[in-house]
C-alpha cells in the first residue's frame, strides 16, 4: 500500500531521496563505508558539504554577502542564538507573536535581551486572523525584529514583510524552500531541518555578514554565528549525515524545477484541501482565508467524537500522522514540499468517503 | 573487498547495525515510513527512545539517581553546558589538561566560569607521559573537576579517577562503552555520539540529579540539563534518527556480551597493534605504555617521506582513514568498539608487508 505521511515534523522526506539514501547507506560512492562514517574534514564529506551549500544558494538565490551555516540545536537553539549573536547592549528587540512557536521564541529570548513582544493573532467574525504587517508597531532602532511567518500549530501564515530599518530575523523552519523569497530583505533566516530540509538535528542559519558578532564573544561556541562562519560550520563536528541528506533534498528540489515550481505545486495542494473543507459542513477550518498556512492545514470535525475513528481509519488507508497537535486537537495535515499532490488528493478522497459514511 | 574504517570520528558503526538500519530505512517495522520521518512525540519513537535509554542504563549500570539526556550540540556543546549548568557563583572549577580536547574544553569554559587549569602531560625519557591522578592539585570546594580520560589526538589515556569532594565531570566521547566504569563516582559524564555510540549530532549526558540546575535558569534551552531532564530530552525536537541508531548500537553491544566483553576485546586489539609497533624499528609510538590509548593509536614511520604512500596503499587494501590528525602528523588507527579484531589483524599484516617492502 502506498502511504502518505502528514507528520508536522520530523516530516516525510522525498521518496526518491530516501531510496538514494538507502542505496548509498552501506557504501557511499564505492568508498567502502557510509558517508555517516567519514571524517567531516575528509575530501569526500567536504565536497558533499560544499555542494549542499551551493545548491541551497542556487535554490534561494542567496546573495554573496550572506553566510550559510549548518548548525546543531534545532529551532530552539536558534531561539537562543539570535539574541546572543544580534542583541545590542541596552537596545530592545521587537518580537512578533503570531502563534505557539513565535511565543516560545520570546520566552527564550527574554533570557538574553530586552524585548518588546506584540501579539498579532486576533479573532474576527469567528475566524482567527492576523494584524497586517503594515500595522505592526516597530522600532527602527531595535536590535532586530523576530517573526515566524508560518505557525505549524496554529496553521496560520503571513507573506508580507514589514518595513523597518531594523534587521528582519525570520524562523522559516516550516516554510523554507516552499515558496520563493527575497533573501536580501532579511538579516537572518533560520530553519530547523525536520520539515522541508532533512532529518531533525540539523539547523540552517543564513546570516548577513554585517550581523555576525565580533570574534571572541562569550557565546556558547555551538551557537556562535561568527565561529560557524569562520570555520565553514566545522568548528565542531557537524551532524554530517543530516547535512548529506539535506544535500540530497536540495538536489531533488532542483530536479523538481526549484522553489518556484514547488510554490506552484504547494498552492495546488493547499487549494485542493482547503477547497474541499470549505464546501463541507462535516469539516471546518477556522482561519481567515488570507492567513491560512499552505504547509500545515488544521481542520476540525463537526462531531469531535469521531476524531479517533478518523485517525485510525485514515491510518488503515495509509494516511499517516493526521492527529492534531495536543494544544489544538482535531486534525492536522502537514503538506510540506515532500508531500506529492497525489497524497493530498488521496486524503481528500478519504475525507469525502468518511463524510459520506459518518456525515 | 572487506574494508576497515579507522576514522577517529565520525567513526565506523557496527556492520550489523548499518545493515539493520538499511533494511529499516524506508519502512520501519511495517509502518510505511522511516523512523526518521516520525514524530518524536508519537508512540513508536517514544518506545525507541525509552528502549535506548534502558539499554544504556543496563550496559553502564547507571544508578537510578542519574538522568540520561539525549542532547544536541556534540562535545563542544557540552564544553559550554558543563560550566553553564554546574558552576557555582564565585567558585572556581578545576580543569585537567591532558591533550587537545581537554584544552579546548578549558578555552570554552573560560567564557562562563572562573577556573584553574593544570597541564598533566609531560615528557619523560623521550616518551609522552601523564602526571598520575594522585598528584593532581585539586580543590575540594571547586564547583567540579573536568577531565577527558582519553585524548583522541594525543593517543593518551588514563584510567584512575582522582580523589576529591568536588563532582567529577568527564568527557568520555571516545571511551564510553569501551570499558566498564563506575558511574556512581562521577557527577556528569558526557559523550559526543560519533565515536562509540552513533552518528554525529547526538550527544549523551549522564547527570547526577543533585547537580541539575534550578528551574528557570538563564541557560540556552538546548544546553539546559534541567529542561532536558524534566522533558525526557524532548523539550525541543531531538536528533531522532541518531537516537534510533544509538539504540541499535546499544542492542548490538548487549548481543556482544556488554561493556565487559568489549573491554576484553578492545584490550586484545590494542595489544595486537602496540605489540607489533614496539617490536618494529620501522614504526614507533612515543607514549609511555601505561598511558597509551586503547581507542586511538597514533604511530609514526621512521621514514616520514613514506607517509603518503602508506596511506594510499593502505586504502587500496581496504584500510581506510589512517592518516594522522593534522596537529600531529603520521598515522592514527582509531579502534573503537565497532572495529573487529580482524580489522586490527588485517592492519598489522599490511604494516608488516609495507615494512618488508620499504624497510
From TrEMBL, chains A, B:
Subcellular location: Cytoplasm
Binding site for pyridoxal 5'-phosphate: 75-76, 101, 152, 171, 194, 236-237
Function: Catalyzes the reversible conversion of 3-phosphohydroxypyruvate to phosphoserine and of 3-hydroxy-2-oxo-4-phosphonooxybutanoate to phosphohydroxythreonine.
Domain named Aminotransferase class V: residues: 4-347
The family this protein is said to belong to: Belongs to the class-V pyridoxal-phosphate-dependent aminotransferase family. SerC subfamily.
Species per Swiss-Prot/TrEMBL record: Rheinheimera mesophila
Residues bearing the modification N6-(pyridoxal phosphate)lysine: 195
Biological or metabolic pathway of the protein: Amino-acid biosynthesis; L-serine biosynthesis; L-serine from 3-phospho-D-glycerate: step 2/3; Cofactor biosynthesis; pyridoxine 5'-phosphate biosynthesis; pyridoxine 5'-phosphate from D-erythrose 4-phosphate: step 3/5
Protein's name according to its UniProt entry: Phosphoserine aminotransferase
InterPro entries: Aminotrans_V_dom, Aminotrans_V_PyrdxlP_BS, Pser_aminoTfrase, PyrdxlP-dep_Trfase, PyrdxlP-dep_Trfase_major, PyrdxlP-dep_Trfase_small
Reaction equation(s) it catalyzes: 4-(phosphooxy)-L-threonine + 2-oxoglutarate = (R)-3-hydroxy-2-oxo-4-phosphooxybutanoate + L-glutamate; O-phospho-L-serine + 2-oxoglutarate = 3-phosphooxypyruvate + L-glutamate
Cofactor(s) in the UniProt record: pyridoxal 5'-phosphate
Cofactor stoichiometry and binding remark: Binds 1 pyridoxal phosphate per subunit.
Amino acid at each position: 500500500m502506498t502511504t502518505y505521511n502528514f507528520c508536522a515534523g520530523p516530516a516525510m522526506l522525498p521518496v526518491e531521496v530516501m531510496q538514494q539514501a538507502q542505496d548509498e547507506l552501506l557504501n557511499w560512492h564505492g568508498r567502502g563505508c557510509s558517508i555517516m562514517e567519514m571524517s567531516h574534514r575528509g575530501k569526500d564529506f567536504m565536497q558533499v558539504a560544499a555542494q549542499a551549500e551551493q545548491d541551497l544558494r542556487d535554490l534561494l538565490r542567496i546573495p554573496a554577502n550572506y553566510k550559510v551555516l549548518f548548525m546543531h540545536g534545532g529551532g530552539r537553539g536558534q531561539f537562543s542564538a539570535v539574541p546572543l549573536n544580534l542583541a545590542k547592549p541596552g537596545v530592545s528587540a521587537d518580537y512578533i507573536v503570531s502563534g505557539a512557536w513565535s511565543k516560545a521564541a520570546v520566552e527564550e529570548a527574554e533570557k538574553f535581551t530586552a524585548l518588546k513582544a506584540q501579539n498579532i493573532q486576533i479573532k474576527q467574525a469567528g475566524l482567527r486572523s492576523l494584524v497586517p504587517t503594515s500595522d505592526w508597531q516597530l522600532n527602527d532602532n531595535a536590535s532586530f525584529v523576530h517573526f515566524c511567518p508560518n505557525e505549524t500549530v496554529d496553521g496560520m501564515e503571513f507573506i508580507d514583510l514589514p518595513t523597518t530599518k531594523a534587521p528582519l530575523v525570520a524562523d522559516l523552519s516550516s516554510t523554507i524552500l516552499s515558496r520563493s523569497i527575497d533573501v536580501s530583505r532579511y538579516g537572518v533566516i533560520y530553519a530547523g531541518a525536520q520539515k522541508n530540509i532533512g532529518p531533525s538535528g540539523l539547523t540552517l542559519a543564513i546570516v548577513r555578514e554585517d550581523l555576525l558578532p565580533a570574534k571572541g564573544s562569550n557565546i556558547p561556541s555551538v551557537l556562535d554565528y561568527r565561529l560557524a562562519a569562520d570555520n565553514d560550520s566545522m568548528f565542531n563536528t557537524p551532524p554530517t549525515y543530516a547535512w548529506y541528506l539535506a544535500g540530497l533534498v536540495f538536489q531533488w528540489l532542483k530536479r523538481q524545477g526549484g522553489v518556484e515550481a514547488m510554490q506552484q505545486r504547494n498552492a495546488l495542494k493547499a487549494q485542493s484541501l482547503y477547497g474541499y473543507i470549505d464546501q463541507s459542513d462535516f469539516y471546518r477550518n477556522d482561519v481567515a482565508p488570507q492567513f491560512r498556512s499552505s504547509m500545515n492545514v488544521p481542520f476540525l470535525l463537526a462531531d469531535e467524537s469521531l476524531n479517533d475513528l478518523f485517525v485510525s481509519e485514515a491510518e488503515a488507508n495509509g494516511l499517516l500522522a493526521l492527529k492534531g497537535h495536543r494544544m489544538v486537537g482535531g486534525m492536522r495535515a502537514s503538506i510540506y514540499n515532500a508531500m506529492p499532490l497525489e497524497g493530498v488528493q488521496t486524503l481528500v478522497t478519504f475525507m469525502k468517503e468518511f463524510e459520506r459514511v459518518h456525515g
